[in-house]
Amino acid sequence: MNSDLTNSPVWRALSNKAQNVSKLQNLFAHNESRAKNLTFALNDEFFIDFSKQQIDSATLDQLIHLAQQQDVEKWRDAMFAGDAINFTENRAVLHVALRGQSDDDYSVQGKPVMSDVLAIRERIIDFATRVREGHWRGATGQRIKTVINIGIGGSALGPELVVRSLRAFQDGPDVRFLANIDPADLSHTLAQLDPATTLFIIASKTFTTQETMTNAKAARRWLIAALGKEAVGQHFVAASTNQAEVEAFGIKSQNMFPYWDWVGGRFSVWASVGLSVILAVGPENFLAFLDGARDMDVHFRTASPAQNLPVLMALFGIWNRNFLNRSSLAILPYSEDLQRLPLFLQQLEMESNGKSINREGQEITYPTCPVVFGQPGTNGQHAFHQQLHQGPEVVPCDIIIALTAHPQDEERAPGQHRQLVANALAQAAALMSGRQHAQPERSFPGNRPSTMIVMEALTPRNLGRLVALYEHKVAVQGWIWEVNSFDQFGVELGKELANALLNNTATDFDSSTLALFSQLDHLSRAA
Ligand code: F6P
Fold first, then answer.
1. 272: Cβ below 6 Å to ligand 1?
2. What 3-state DSSP class applies to 47?
3. CB 355 within 8 A of CB 483
């Protein structure tokens, strides 16, 4: 059993501090410059106010000491150097190269990668431009009006987040996402489409994922029934690392946009899996999104731990999770455009750090990733915020705001964005300050922490900064917790058992599962 981390002096000092933490209101009362001291900026357009985290400066110093003890800077540098830090799969973790520029010199285990990255970036931009400008057409000669990204997990959540978040910038075809193996999703999506004007992107790193391949084959049958077999090449392209399977599906290699095994699925929106984004919002906005992530990469790589946004965010998360025993994290974007952010972060955080085996292969003794959930404000206020304010468990919140609305939204609804942001600030204030009332049910305990992430506006560049901020935060937490944030073996067993049920290849299922499955069999045979 691993106990080095929890027995280290700094961990013990933090545990002691957690026994006696001042209330948030007192921390503010004793320090007039608290908000200023605990607000850290990437630049004028992007900053984070951590002052409503329940922490004093001595504790923050100890947390920084913890990051140093856990070699966060060494791991970070190894990641940027292309070392195989995904040690269970012996792979580099170099998604940062996907937003690199020609003067960046990223390499994977000694082999430079930037020329390949830039070549593929050029190809996806060229392809998307041809579609957007009507040079690439469907088999009947009509322009592409609708793009369906068939993919799941990292091959869907990233591009869906970005397309949705940048809908104010969309000037290309309608882009939709088909992920679930539920036939209701497929049939509902196909029913609304005209095959002659539809382009399918099959996004799958492995090109073997059950959901994606089942939906892709159904879409191909549907297209062939309408336009014939020869039409497939004009209506299907792929983002994948598996050329053999892509070609076996009927997609020519020139219509396959590759990426590399050093890009994890949940980090793949920056490359070929971002094709749907370029189709929707155009190359310039996509490149601005990449530049934003690169801004955060440079900051992460160069800022001292005490000023480093992803490091600080990771440390406040560790403080809440491991020392104050907060088991969940609410993601509250005050932005309808950012509606998909909680879902995207569920995968990023929980698939990366929902683990309990450390680098030595031992079971760890401390909690790791909190349960991540959320939805945009103000809608969430009328759903689950009751529990955030008065439930017995404290739920730390990340509140994300843009100070200004998109010009067209401000023009159509003057002043409304101000109301939105005022609500976000009011929630954070209410969570922290609470209110005493003679009737206990009308009292608010307060002392509930939140972090306020502030963007000047929700632009492509700020979105890139935001996504990269969370990517790096998750990596730092994994390094501190000593888990591998870059594999996902926990999703395998369910996949195998579903196949075993379908193929009738396993006999050792429990009686409950077998009884339920026989009912399904019975009903589907009767249907
Ligand atoms: O859910 C497990 C997972 O492997 C994710 O990590 C990945 O993003 C998703 O499945 C899809 O995988 P692929 O891109 O290979 O279809």
1. no
2. strand
3. yes
Number of Cβ within 10 Å of residue 85's Cβ equals 21
Q: How far apart are CA 186 and CA 176, in angstroms?
A: 12
For residue 238, give the H/E element and its range: strand 236-240
Low-confidence stretches of the chain (pLDDT beneath 70): 1-3, 527
- pLDDT at position 1 is 42
Output the pTM of the full model.
Answer: 0.97
**Ligand 1, pocket-test mutation among 209, 243, 261, 350, most atoms within 8 A of CB:** 209
Q: Are 96 and 80 in contact (CB under 8 A)?
A: yes
155 lines ligand 1 (CB under 6 A): yes
Q: Which of 160, 211, 245, 351 is catalytic?
A: 351
| Residue 483 and residue 428 in contact, taking contact as beta carbons nearer than 8 Å | no
φ/ψ (deg, to 5) at 429: -65, -45
Q: Which two tokens stand for residue 179?
A: 């992920």
Residue 521's pLDDT is what? 81
Is the separation of the CB atoms in 236 and 251 below 8 Å?
Answer: yes
- 382 is an active site residue: yes
pLDDT tens by residue, 179-194? 999 999 999 999 999 9
What's 400-429 look like in SS3? EEECCCCHHHHHHCCCHHHHHHHHHHHHHH
Tell the residue nearest (CA) to atom 10 of ligand 1.
153
Angle at 197 between CA 191 and CA 198, to 5 degrees: 60
β-pair type (450-455, 397-402): parallel
Three state DSSP letters for 463-487: HHHHHHHHHHHHHHHHHHHCCCCCC
